[in-house]
């Protein structure tokens, strides 16, 4: 037994039961929120996601995916909304431009590279690699087929390879 509720288990309608139903998924929800909405408060995103899940618990359909996938899809949606609300705190003035440092610039910056992917590719990478979802659960979060997830991940890996190549 993996700790994942059985596929036929619907969210309980009582508060305490619902808390126990979502508890195994909280860390995945927090990781996904942090990955998708950098700079936003991940705990706020998870809280908004849980509120949304509670209000929509009657819409959960186990035949369409696991509880984890359903909760992470809600979290991804709330994270996108939070990321849109973020505003730059301040613009850099010309004199605030960082000094060029070849030693630092030579380092590989995976987060920056992932940030240059398309929204769809970034979501696939974040779900599959950072939230440790299966292909099936990633497809449920993204609202697409498993084949589309595999193709999207392949395209994302090719793009990341080209971005992260270090010439010697």
Automatic annotation (TrEMBL):
Coiled coil: none annotated. Residues 109-160 form the RNA polymerase sigma factor 70 region 4 type domain. It comes from the Bacteria. CDD domains: Sigma70_r4. Residues 22-85 form the RNA polymerase sigma-70 region domain. InterPro entries: RNA_pol_sigma-70-like, RNA_pol_sigma-70_dom, RNA_pol_sigma70_r2, RNA_pol_sigma70_r4_t2, RNA_pol_sigma_r2, RNA_pol_sigma_r3/r4-like, WH-like_DNA-bd_sf. Keywords: DNA-binding, Sigma factor, Transcription, Transcription regulation. Belongs to the sigma-70 factor family. ECF subfamily. This is RNA polymerase sigma factor. The lineage of its organism: Bacteria, Bacillati, Actinomycetota, Actinomycetes, Propionibacteriales.
